[in-house]
Design brief:
The protein is an alpha+beta fold. It has three domains: 288 residues, no CATH class; 111 residues, no CATH class; 58 residues, Orthogonal Bundle (Arc Repressor Mutant, subunit A). The protein contains 15 helices and 17 strands. A hairpin with a 4-residue loop joins β14 and β15. It binds zinc ion.
């Protein structure tokens, strides 16, 4: 079989988290009673006029600035005409010819180093409503919920520069991280505020001409994006190596069966008859306005990762995890103000705190353990006041009660056993009770040291100072 390479471009729709819709005053909130957030404007009644929501335009610009785009001082809204039951006006307002952002890029960290993926453009548009297909007694009926109709979207189009399903997933994850930093969207794939279509083609390695591309839709998680593209690359490579062809078409990802299925071919593609929407003014932005929005952009993940590695000595992997959400990075740096132990605090956040965050599906600032408490806890352990094992107990108690580490240590009468005499006593009794292991240790089986440390820790009910236990054991066993 010939070797093929994949050429992948992503079109990502992101719902902007404005309070109201893009051209009317209806709430844009997710999850309300169906058809409770509608009005004559977003229902497309004759004689109504759309008015652009300023916050939506601001957020589109913020997204563009965070992604290194050229913000266009002049952009135009167009009508994209097509008929579908979830589209009340029978056209969608979008930006075809003069989008709000051009260019831009996103760096992804592949296993083989960093790659820059260029963006083509970002344009603004309105969302469509949502069809709900009946089940059971309602089977055969379809319902339409217009709450989502006219919720603001941006569509972020990448150049076809991704070369594998893995890279596509990394790109999407990084895009989500950056957009969450600038707080323009929660980018929740399950709730549909981040949606991705993929254009995939393959070509023999060395070939410079592009192959026929297929558009894949209906992927609802990072994992399904990766799986769908993997499937599609394999399907197209197989067809071509058997002398067949790839048809230009749109295919739907079937997550349960793990395959893509044809939806419509491009031969009878829609003619959308785009033209400028006569009801809306062109969107004009001044330099001052763009500068004002630029000043709202926080330090972004790439720069913050570099700083965490340089300033705090973290590994690339640890820094990656801590900057993957702005809140994690903020929490970390707040904790460091109380106790400057960059690695110690990073470890506690990554191992213990993020477990609670994930198990309970909470924000990192909502766990009941403020940054100061983690810092205090690490300080108590590092000073030797309590042992690491006791630290975990204090942590669990703090999660349960919200009390500070100091209060818990005081209430429980915790302290680390660092009394030499007492430790010698425990060590000697442990050695006396295990003559065989003692003999083996003396004959060179040094890995048995861990066995003895475990026994001493158990005997002291976790209170013994581990470093002292190690030293005393080594000394006594020799
Ligand atoms: Zn409305």
């Amino acid at each position: 079989m010939k070797e093929f390479e994949a050429v992948i471009g992503l079109e990502v729709h992101v719902q902007l988290n404005t309070a109201s819709k893009i051209f009317c005053a209806c709430s844009a909130e997710f999850g309300a009673e169906p058809n409770s957030h509608v009005c004559p404007v977003c229902m497309g009644f004759p004689g109504t006029l759309p008015v652009l929501n300023k916050a939506a335009a601001d957020k589109a610009v913020q997204a563009g600035l965070a992604l290194g785009c050229n913000i266009q001082k002049f952009s135009i809204f167009d009508r994209k005409s097509y008929f579908y039951p979830d589209l009340p006006k029978a056209y969608q307002i979008t930006q075809m010819f003069y989008p709000i952002c051009l260019g831009g890029f996103l760096n992804i960290d592949t296993g083989n180093g960093e790659r820059r993926i260029n963006l083509t453009r970002i344009h603004m548009e309105e969302d469509a409503g949502k069809l709900i297909h009946g089940e059971g007694e309602a089977a055969g009926y379809s319902y339409v919920d217009f709450n989502r109709a006219s919720v603001p979207l941006i569509e972020i189009v990448s150049e076809p520069e991704l070369r594998s399903a893995e890279e596509a997933k990394l790109y999407l994850q990084k895009l989500r991280t950056v957009l969450r930093y600038v707080k323009v969207s929660d980018c929740n794939m399950e709730e549909g505020s981040l949606r991705c279509d993929a254009n995939v083609s393959v070509r023999p390695i060395g070939e410079t001409k592009l192959g026929t591309k297929v558009e894949i839709k209906n992927m609802n998680s990072f994992r399904s994006v990766q799986r769908a593209i993997e499937y599609e690359i394999a399907r197209q490579s197989e067809a071509l190596s058997e002398g067949g062809i790839v048809r230009q078409e749109t295919r739907l990802w079937d997550n349960d069966r793990g395959i893509t299925l044809p939806m419509r071919s491009k031969e009878n593609a829609h003619d959308y008859r785009y033209f400028p929407d006569p009801d809306l003014f062109p969107l004009k932005l001044t330099d001052e306005k763009i500068e004002r929005l630029r000043r709202t952009i926080p330090e972004l993940p790439d720069s913050r990762k570099g700083r965490f590695m340089g300033e705090y000595g973290l590994s690339a992997q640890d820094a990656d995890l801590l900057v993957s959400e702005k809140d994690y990075a903020d929490y970390y740096e707040t904790a460091l103000k109380t106790h400057k132990s960059p690695k110690g605090i990073a470890n506690w956040i990554m191992s213990e705190l993020l477990r609670v965050v994930n198990d309970k599906n909470l924000g990192i600032f909502e766990t009941g353990i403020p940054p100061e408490s983690i810092a205090k806890l690490v300080a108590l352990i590092e000073s030797g006041a309590i042992s690491g094992k006791q630290g975990k107990e204090v942590f669990a108690e703090a999660v349960k009660t919200g009390k500070t580490p100091d209060a818990i240590v005081r209430e429980k009468g915790m302290s680390q056993l660092s009394d030499k005499g007492e430790l010698y006593g425990i060590v000697e009794s442990v050695i006396r009770e295990n003559p065989n292991e003692t003999e083996r240790f003396k004959n060179g089986e040094e890995k048995l040291l861990g066995f003895f440390v475990g026994l001493v820790m158990k005997e002291s009910r976790g209170k013994a100072n581990p470093k002292m236990v190690n030293d005393i054991l080594k000394e006594t066993l020799k």
